[in-house]
Design brief:
The chain is of the alpha/beta class and 800 residues long. The strands form six sheets. An eight-stranded parallel beta barrel has the order 23-24-25-26-27-28-29-30, surrounded by five helices. A hairpin with a 6-residue loop joins strand 12 and strand 13. The longest helix has 20 residues. The radius of gyration is 30 Å and the shape is elongated. The relative contact order is 0.07.
Length: 800
């Protein structure tokens, strides 16, 4: 293979060969040469070097004509750029391929045919010599030609690929990035075509692209060829895998989201100018994931191996071959956006009002922006866009970038979080809502709207201008106080971002939020759908649970993935998960819930908390909760999860629930399982020495403890003036609880609202010597500083 002048096979290339073959080919060669033996499957191929590109233009005497076409170009003049780019492409394509170069390309093709068979199809891909640098990605600027068969088709695709160095988007990109057109050269990668057209493909990252959280592999995928995912033509499936527990031997998908996958890209035969087309994805395929968990986990292993080799976060393209069933890595480059952030200030946009939601999709970034909408239906109409407007489009491509750079926000019908629009929005730091379905028809053109990506995974477009503000939280090197400062958190969608706050773990993860948002169905209605009499509700339950093996598994998987996401975000710090603490009226509001819940006059002190868990009316539902917790700890390996029981009224009730938990596979002390209880009933304090024998810690719920100590319903407007967590009687209850925990050698914490709302309560807790307090995220930094000051006054240091 070494007798070629202008060809280098992948096994001859390494990452230091970027000047010769560009970033894409150098990376493919590096992986093929070094990672194949470590189990990463890379299709074989060869690079046509950048020297060949120079040789083509030298031989044709084309350099002067190229200078004439491009010198003095005004990038702001779109029409002039298009004319000059077309002329430059004609010059390069017209230069042809010298005979000796063409003969080498065909000879190298024969070598691949010997390995893979004569019917081998090829992918012909560009690789710019300044491409895929850590600070600037040339991704998507040049062309790719797929499913190439035969000598003449291959040679024509190579000519077209050389010419694509001067696509309009590539010219504009180089000008923006400060690259000289005549110092960037093109190498071509020719490799075995992976037949993902009859299977699946996608993109994965070795970090969370929204928050920059590093302990994840984020996998996206769809049916057919990968261009749809890269370009944002589809809303793909999404999967997360937690690296530390994967490295520890656990094999579980942390979290997943089903994409719409409306179209899939397949091959066209016999035309190098258009080698692919999109066709509708069958409905049955759209309603299931494009790859199974074993594929996701294999890809995560590949991603971790690649990241370990390169020692930096990576952006990786993968494809599954529908003929041999194998997963292949077809590109890897450094991730260039989230990994470049240095997080010293956590900025959070917060809506100050509400409005009519006119479109919803997947949120990219965590910003909010208002502006006038501009619906653009094609590239030809981009000149209608005005700076500061909200760009609304079916999808975007690199040709749209000049306009995107001036937008306040971007909304697309199609695409997932790794699509072109999402990548550019992240680079620009503006909000984008992708995969919004019919946004171009739902959003009126030329009207004021507000795009919000600050409410979790779902991005909303509101009619009109909704007020918002931006909060800034410094997260510099804040010393850790002796009192553990933990976080109250229920929403898995903000867990990764919230984990960057200085913290000692999660003191209260509320299961109710996950059930409300991700399950929506009463657990007993999933187990006994025949008892749900409303046909519409039954149909909705069937729709929500479609694709799941059974309705019980749906509940367990959804709940465990929500809890697991929070546990993974804070791993290996403790995450205290409170089992469901809905009141009966709240349970009844879940889908199908009214068939299983009593009608109570005062649900606050009714059928709630631990009293439900061993009761015949709910014990089957409790079994599902325990199955989910067991899956988080045992299957996912997230043993930092501590289980907490709410509203434990009596010692006998504690015994009954602990026995039922053990029956369901959650035995205190087994596999390091700790079980806490909420301390929120006066009886918990009065009998603390007896309760302490049964639990590893108490978390004081100051909200309910205040209500039950003072006999005040905080939701009753007429007596709400009597509700005060700072009352001396409440403070005495807290003191007795903290001292009781210390006396019995178990953990004491507080997870109520008091220290978040009242600085003096935080100080009081420190003076008592409480082990931890759990706060709302927005008060963590200020309260930590206050606690450090109180501890300094008390001459207490971390570790005491």
């Amino acid at each position: 293979m070494t007798n070629f002048k202008y060809i280098r096979f992948f096994n001859e290339l390494g990452i230091d060969d970027v000047p010769l073959v560009g970033g894409k080919n150098a990376s493919l060669g590096e992986m093929y040469r070094t990672l194949t033996e470590r189990g990463v499957t890379v299709p074989n191929g060869f690079a046509i070097t950048a020297d060949a590109y120079r040789y083509v233009l030298d031989k044709a005497g084309a350099w002067d004509a190229l200078h004439a076409a491009l010198d003095g170009l005004d990038p702001a003049n779109v029409a002039d750029l298009a004319r000059r780019g077309k002329r430059a492409r004609e010059i390069v394509y017209g230069a042809g391929l010298p005979d000796d170069l063409a003969q080498e390309i065909v000879a190298a093709y024969r070598v691949l045919q010997e390995e893979y068979g004569e019917d081998l199809s090829l992918a012909v891909r560009s690789s710019a010599t300044a491409e895929d640098l850590p600070t600037a990605s040339f991704a998507g600027q040049q062309d790719t030609f797929l499913n190439i068969h035969g000598d003449e088709s291959l040679l024509d695709a190579c000519r077209r690929d050389f010419a694509s160095l001067f696509t309009d988007r590539a010219i504009h990109y180089r000008l923006d990035q400060g690259f000289d057109h005549f110092k960037v050269f093109l190498s071509i990668g020719v490799m075995k075509m992976v037949r993902s057209d009859i299977s699946s493909s996608g993109v994965m990252f070795t970090l969370d692209t929204e928050s920059g959280f590093r302990d994840l592999v984020f996998v996206t995928g769809s049916y057919g060829l990968g261009e749809n995912v890269v370009q944002g033509a589809v809303d793909p499936d999404e999967f997360y895998v937690h690296k530390p527990t994967y490295a520890g031997g656990h094999r579980a998908v942390l979290r997943r989201s089903l994409g719409d996958k409306a179209v899939k890209m397949i091959y066209l035969e016999g035309d190098t100018r258009q080698t692919t087309r999109n066709i509708p994805t069958p409905k049955a395929d759209r309603e299931r994931y494009c790859i199974d968990d074993s594929d996701v986990l294999e890809l995560a292993g590949y991603a971790m191996t690649i990241e370990q080799h390169y020692q930096r976060p990576m952006d990786i393209e993968w494809a599954k071959d529908g003929t041999d069933g194998k997963l292949y890595i077809v590109q890897a480059r450094p991730e260039t956006v989230a990994s470049q952030r240095v997080l010293t200030v956590l900025e959070t946009d917060v809506l100050d009002g509400k409005g009519e939601i006119i479109a919803t999709g997947r949120a990219v970034g965590e910003r909010i922006a208002s502006g006038r909408t501009r619906v653009i239906t094609s590239v030809a109409k981009l000149d209608e866009f005005q700076p500061g407007e909200i760009l609304v489009a079916d999808t975007t491509t690199p040709d749209w970038e000049p306009v995107m750079k001036t937008a306040a926000a971007i909304v697309t019908n199609r695409g997932g979080r790794t699509c072109h629009a999402a990548i550019i929005a992240r680079e620009l730091g503006i909000p984008a809502v992708v995969g919004a379905g019919t946004a171009t028809s739902d959003i009126p053109d030329g009207e004021i709207a507000t795009v919000s990506c600050a409410e979790g995974d779902s991005g909303h477009i509101y009619r009109g201008e909704v007020p918002f503000h931006r909060e800034q939280t410094e997260i510099g090197d804040l010393p850790r106080p002796a009192t553990h400062i933990m976080i109250n958190l229920g929403n898995p969608e903000i867990a990764f971002k919230t984990s960057f706050l200085p913290n000692d773990g999660v003191g209260l993860a509320r299961m109710e939020f996950i059930i409300n948002e991700y399950i929506k169905i009463h657990p007993m209605a999933l187990l006994h759908p025949e008892r749900v009499t409303d046909a519409t509700v039954r149909d909705t339950i069937d729709l929500l649970t479609r694709g799941a093996p059974d309705k019980a598994t749906f509940f367990v998987q959804r709940l465990s993935e929500g809890i697991g996401t929070i546990a993974a975000a804070f791993w290996p710090k403790p995450v205290v998960v409170r089992l469901s603490d809905f009141k009966s009226n709240e349970y009844a509001s879940l889908l199908g819930g009214s068939a299983f819940e009593p009608d109570e006059a005062n649900p606050m002190i009714g059928f709630r908390g631990a009293s439900r868990y061993a009761h015949p009316a709910y014990v089957e539902g409790f079994h599902l909760e325990c199955r989910a917790m067991k899956r988080v700890r045992d299957t996912m390996g997230l043993t930092n999860v501590i289980v907490m029981l709410p509203f434990v009224r009596r010692v006998q009730e504690a015994d009954a629930v602990l026995a039922k938990m053990a029956e369901f596979g959650l035995t205190r002390g087994e596999n390091g399982l700790q079980v806490y209880a909420m301390c929120e009933i006066p009886n918990n304090v009065i009998l603390i020495d007896q309760f302490a024998k049964r639990f590893d810690g108490f978390s004081i719920g100051s909200n309910d403890l205040t209500q039950l100590t003072l006999g005040v319903d905080r939701d009753s407007e007429i007596v709400a003036f009597d509700y005060d967590e700072r009352d001396d009687g409440v403070k005495e209850m807290i003191r007795l609880a903290v001292e009781g925990c210390r006396r019995n050698g178990i953990h004491s914490g507080l997870c109520g609202q008091a220290p978040s709302d009242y600085p003096e309560m935080a100080e009081y807790l420190v003076q008592l010597g409480i082990d931890s307090m759990s706060l709302n995220p927005d008060t963590v930094v200020a309260t930590t500083r206050r606690v450090l000051q109180v501890e300094a006054n008390l001459k207490r240091t971390s570790g005491e």
